[in-house]
Amino acid sequence: MHEAGLVAALAEELLRLKEREGAQRVLRFTVEIGELSGVDPEAFRWAYEILREMYAELKETEMILDLVPARFRCKICGREFPGDYFSLCPGCQSPEKTLLSGEELTLREVEFEVADV
Amino acid sequence: MCESCGCGERTLRVTVSRGLLSENERLARENRAWFKRLGVRVVNLVGSPGAGKTSLIEATVRRLPECRVGVIEGDPETRRDAERLSRLGIPVAAVTTGGVCHLDARMVHRAFHELAASPPELLFIENVGNLLCPADFDLGEDLTVVVLSVTEGEDKPEKYPQAFRRASAVVLTKVDLLPHVDFDLARVAELIARINPEARLFPLSVRTGEGLEPWIEFLRA
């Protein structure tokens, strides 16, 4: 996967937001990674650790990963269930389902340190 | 306010909820609008190295003499495939990604500048040979087509579901080799239907010409 490219885009976004908020530092941020997003959380964290060395402004910044489980809703009987793309509805065995969560790859929240004015 | 030391700093929490791929998605929307304005139908071909993407383009171009076809050819290194396609006498823009594992909307935008002066009616984007990464990157195409050869093994839809998830069609290539490999066509069709019930399936062989007609009709439609 291209975790390195993703964290590079993430770093740019964090610095852009820091600028926008007029903040002194980025303290921590939360990224949601869906179980079906194709991103490996360990590779993502590793890529971030390397990238952090290249950005002086992010050296102290903590990344929180929020892993989002995959959930589906059956199109036939409406039952909600965990699973993957191949799962059948545990209620009626139908393969037809809508994905409710699990493909997230989202920067959800950022905490900054700002000077009090 | 920092409670403990009174240093005059405080913490600000901002909810962002921005997708990590949102910049690519924005550029892909721009590409899509551009293609639409010029009347270009765009097909993004995704598949492993050696699945037969370039051969499929060659065979398709030969069977669509009435259609102006262009190609954006992505390769991590070398322009070999682009040169091979140029021999068909069609416009080809090569993108050498320098080792990057997928094409993104920006690369496609840059490459399309080479073709936009005399835009093709049908544009193939041959993605970098890889069944994993290209799935995440919208290029602004109308159709995403997965190219899977029967020699790759029937477990690919299970191993790489993301690639199949948003595909409009799956082309199963090299079916002339089916007698020699363990590849259960019906089983693979069922797996693909589980991931993506809407995907059309085109088993074909570029070598024998078997199954090419339905694929060509699909592109004409």
UniProtKB/TrEMBL annotation, chain B:
InterPro entries in the cross-refs: AAA+_ATPase, CobW/HypB/UreG_nucleotide-bd, Hyd_mat_HypB, P-loop_NTPase
Assigned keywords, A-Z: GTP-binding, Hydrolase, Metal-binding, Nickel, Nucleotide-binding, Zinc
Pfam family, any one: cobW
Name by which UniProt lists this protein: Hydrogenase accessory protein HypB
Any single biological process term in GO: protein maturation
Organism: Thermosulfurimonas dismutans
Signal peptide, first to last residue: none
Limits of the AAA+ ATPase domain: 39-198
Annotated family: Belongs to the SIMIBI class G3E GTPase family. HypB/HupM subfamily.
GO MF terms, alphabetically ordered: GTP binding; GTPase activity; nickel cation binding; zinc ion binding
Lineage, uppermost ranks: Bacteria, Pseudomonadati, Thermodesulfobacteriota, Thermodesulfobacteria, Thermodesulfobacteriales
Keyword check for Hydrolase: yes
SMART domains tied to this protein: AAA (SM00382)
NCBIfam families listed in its UniProt record: hypB
UniProt keyword Zinc present: yes
Gene from which the chain derives: hypB
